[in-house]
Design a protein that fits this description.
By secondary structure, the protein is an alpha+beta fold. It has ten helices and 15 strands. The strands form six sheets. Strands 10-11-15-14 form a four-stranded mixed beta sheet. Helix 2 packs antiparallel against helix 3. The protein is flat, with a radius of gyration of 37 Å. About 9% of the residues have low confidence.
Length: 381
C-alpha cells in the first residue's frame, strides 16, 4: 500500500512554515494519541502516520530531500526511528507542553503558587446626549471584591499566617504521569496557591477578599459617545494575597434623544415646515445644544433639503473643533382644511396646471421621463 503525501497527512500546504507544521501535528497527535484512544488500531495508525510525517517535514534537510525525491528520498529516515524519539529534533514534552498545560491546569514555568491579579470590571453608564456633549462628574456604586480589612489580604486570622503546602512544597503544582509523558496540574491540596491556612480569618473565611460596594467619582470628558470606555486603573477587583487589583472600565451608552441624532461629530435633526413657508420662503427657529437660532428658508425649498449650521454640533474628546448641525427639511401637507381653505387650494391648483405646470414642479418632469422609460423597457420587442 502506497504512503500518503506527508503534507496531505498533516493537512498543510507545501509552503507551510515550522509553526504551521507543529500546530497541525499537535492537533492530530492530540486527537489520535494511543493514550486517549486505547485499543483503537485505526487511531494508533493515524498517530504513527502523523508522527512520521512530522519527523520528516520538521527537519529542514529531510524536508528538502522529500520535496525533491518524494518518499524515496527519505525512506531510510522515515523507517528508522522507533519509540518516542525524533519529532523533528524536538522533545515530546516541548511539543505538547503548552497544550496539556491548558488541559491539566499547568502552564509551564508558572513557578511557586503565584497570586492572581484582580479581575477587570465593567460598568455600563447611561448618559443623556446633553451630558455626553458637555461632560460631567458621576458618582458610581460598584459591587466588587476588596481586600479584607481584618487580615489585610492574607486570609489568615490576625496573629497567624499561612504555611507552606506540604503536598506541592509551595510550588502550587504537582506533576502527574500521562502515559509515557508527564504533565503538571494545580495542586489538589492548596488549589494552586502554594500555601495553606490552618486558622482562617473569620471575616473573609480565608479568601483574603470580601464583597463590598464602593462608591467612586468618575469624570466624564466632554464629547464622549456610545462605545467609548473610560479606564479607572486599579479600581477593579482586589487581587489574591495583595496582588495588583484589576481595572474598572466605564462603558458609555448615550440615550436616544427626542430631537437630535448624533453622527460622529455632527448632529442631525428633522425640521418640519408648512407648504407655504417652503414655497414662499421665510425664517424659523430651530433648536441647538446652545439654545435657539434662526434658520432662513429660501423660496422653493424641497423636502429632504439639508441646511448645515457650522460649529453647532459636538466637540469631540480628541478634537478642538466642533461638528455641524444638519437640519433636514420635511414639508408637511396641511390637514383638516376648512371649506374656504379647500377653495383657495383649488384656485391655486388651477393656476399651477396647464402648459407651464412643469416649471413649478422640477422633479415631476424627471419622474415622468423615468416612468415612460420603465414601461418602454417592459414592452416586448
Amino acid at each position: 500500500m502506497s504512503k500518503r503525501d506527508y503534507y496531505e497527512v498533516l493537512g498543510v500546504s507545501k509552503d507551510a512554515n515550522d509553526a504551521d507544521l507543529k500546530k497541525a501535528y499537535r492537533r492530530l497527535a492530540m486527537k489520535h494519541h494511543p493514550d486517549r484512544n486505547p485499543d483503537d488500531n485505526v487511531a494508533e495508525e493515524k498517530f504513527k502516520e502523523a508522527k512520521e510525517a512530522f519527523e520528516i517535514l520538521g527537519d529542514s534537510q529531510k524536508r528538502a530531500s522529500y520535496d525533491r525525491f518524494g518518499h524515496d528520498g527519505v525512506s531510510n529516515s522515515a523507517s528508522g526511528g522507533g519509540g518516542g524519539a525524533g519529532f523533528g529534533g524536538g522533545d515530546f514534552n516541548d511539543i505538547f507542553g503548552d497544550v496539556f498545560g491548558d488541559i491539566f491546569g499547568g502552564g509551564g514555568g508558572r513557578g511557586r503558587g503565584r497570586a492572581r491579579g484582580g479581575a477587570d470590571l465593567q460598568y455600563n453608564l447611561d448618559l443623556t446626549l446633553e451630558e455626553s456633549v458637555t461632560g460631567l462628574e458621576k458618582s458610581l456604586k460598584i459591587p466588587t471584591q476588596v481586600v479584607c480589612s481584618q487580615c489585610t489580604g492574607s486570609g489568615a486570622k490576625p496573629g497567624t499566617k499561612p504555611v507552606t503546602c506540604e503536598t506541592c512544597k509551595g510550588m502550587g503544582q504537582v506533576r502527574m504521569q500521562q502515559g509515557f509523558f508527564s504533565v503538571q496540574q494545580a495542586c489538589p491540596t492548596c488549589r494552586g496557591k502554594g500555601e495553606q491556612i490552618s486558622d482562617p480569618c473569620n471575616k473573609c473565611h480565608g479568601a483574603g477578599r470580601v464583597q463590598e460596594q464602593k462608591t467612586l467619582s468618575v469624570k466624564i470628558p466632554p464629547g464622549v459617545d456610545t462605545g467609548d470606555r473610560i479606564r479607572l486603573s486599579g479600581e477593579g477587583e482586589a487581587g489574591e494575597k495583595n496582588a495588583p487589583a484589576g481595572d474598572l472600565y466605564v462603558l458609555v451608552q448615550v440615550k436616544k434623544h427626542n430631537i437630535f441624532e448624533r453622527n460622529d461629530d455632527d448632529l442631525l435633526c428633522t425640521v418640519p415646515i408648512d407648504v407655504i413657508t417652503a414655497s414662499l420662503g421665510g425664517e424659523l427657529e430651530v433648536p441647538t445644544l446652545d439654545g435657539r437660532v434662526n434658520l432662513k428658508i429660501p423660496a422653493g425649498t424641497q423636502t429632504d433639503k439639508v441646511f448645515r449650521m457650522r460649529g453647532k454640533g459636538v466637540k469631540p474628546v480628541r478634537n478642538s473643533s466642533a461638528g455641524d448641525l444638519l437640519c433636514r427639511i420635511q414639508i408637511e401637507v396641511p390637514v383638516n382644511l376648512t371649506a374656504e381653505q379647500k377653495e383657495l387650494f383649488e384656485q391655486l391648483r388651477t393656476t399651477l396646471s396647464g402648459k407651464n405646470c412643469l416649471k413649478h414642479t422640477p422633479r415631476h418632469s424627471g419622474w415622468l421621463d423615468g416612468m415612460k422609460k420603465f414601461f418602454d423597457d417592459m414592452r416586448p420587442s
